[in-house]
Write a structure and sequence with these properties.
Layout lengths: L2 H20 L3 H19 L5 H32 L10 H15 L7 H8 L2 H8 L4 H9 L6 H19 L5 H20 L3 H25 L4 H4 L2 H4 L1 H15 L7 H13 L3 H27 L2 H4 L7
Helix pairs in contact: 1-2, 1-7, 2-3, 3-4, 3-5, 4-7, 5-9, 6-10, 8-9, 8-15, 9-10, 9-15, 10-13, 10-14, 13-15, 14-15
């Protein structure tokens, strides 16, 4: 792809997200989401490979369906309440529809099936954009409609996402699929706290974006597309190995590191709201995620390639 076209597409991607984040009218928010989707389709399908074409098609269909659901829910709300204001979503059926549409848009379980497939079919850098930047617009809509969204649905979406994100990531060997399930699990934590305390959700999102950016950058630098591929990163660059280890442990949520802070605050808030069983279930599901982060950490830092696996060197 020529640099000019790539620049236009990336600026469209940024513009779409910014339009959605700054709009108060549902139609403008929808236009922003559509612009966002249309801009990333050519980025996913740049490889000209059947897998990437399939990924682009899957992404387009799910995002178009989710955007249509968002537009439909806002139309129902406007029909019944006479306002197109995003902050005035006060009609119950449209709120339920909106929360399900946003779940599909973000990839929250049980509407998560498209995310690992799309990430696996695209390059590491494209997967990085989908896992980070593409979450901003739907999260801003959740933030703006927070007071009206049904909290029970958000809690259940959060719990299932956290559990499925941990459970399904256990048997993966591809780093992009592992990052997809990691994304699903983290978004589950954000959905869990969304209806209770919005500033913790924003903090969780910022921490998640920083850690995912660091990890994807490390994976792109070391060209590690499988767990086996990460084993050679230590010999290539010990510094990169240490950074990857710390980032992975932080994503897992181990105490002295940054990733522990949002989990701690969310669990504390859940217990204060008398949701102790929910907090226990979330903590248990975090252990599942921690397992595959630890396995990735182990291959990255504690193994030297020729000794443990039958594999070729990168060079």
């Amino acid at each position: 792809m020529s640099p000019t076209i790539y620049t236009i597409i990336l600026s469209s991607l940024a513009t779409g997200t910014i339009i959605t984040m700054t709009s108060f009218h549902w139609l403008m928010a929808w236009i922003g989401l559509e612009l966002n989707t249309l801009a990333i389709i050519p980025i996913i399908s740049t490889l000209h490979h059947p897998r990437s074409t399939e990924a682009a098609t899957k992404y387009f269909l799910t995002q178009a369906a989710a955007s249509a659901m968002i537009l439909f829910s806002s139309m129902i709300n406007a029909w019944n309440m006479g306002t197109w204001d995003i902050t005035q979503m006060s009609y119950a059926p449209s709120n339920i529809l909106l929360s399900l549409a946003l779940a599909l848009k973000l990839g929250l379980a049980p509407a998560h099936f498209w995310l690992p497939e799309v990430l696996q079919g695209s390059t590491l850098s494209t997967a990085f954009i989908i896992a980070t930047w593409q979450k901003l617009a739907p999260m801003s809509l959740i933030y703006m409609t927070m007071n009206n969204l049904p909290s029970m649905i958000l809690l259940m979406l959060g719990l299932t996402s956290s559990a499925i994100g941990g459970w399904s990531g256990l048997n993966q060997t591809q780093t992009r699929k592992i990052m997809a399930y990691s994304s699903i699990a983290h978004l589950g934590w954000m959905a869990m706290i969304a209806s209770l305390m919005s500033n913790i959700m924003i903090m969780n999102l910022v921490v998640y974006l920083m850690m995912t950016t660091a990890l994807f950058t490390s994976l792109i630098c070391s060209k590690s597309e499988t767990i086996k591929g990460t084993a050679a990163s230590w010999t290539a660059s010990p510094t990169l190995g240490v950074i990857m280890m710390l980032t992975l442990l932080s994503l897992g949520g181990l105490p002295p590191l940054t990733g522990f802070l949002p989990k701690w605050l969310i669990l504390e808030e859940l217990i204060m709201q008398n949701l102790a069983p929910m907090a226990t279930a979330m903590a248990m599901s975090a252990l599942l995620s921690l397992f595959f982060y630890l396995r990735l950490t182990y291959t990255t830092t504690l193994t030297l390639p020729p000794n443990t696996l039958q594999m070729k060197f990168k060079w």
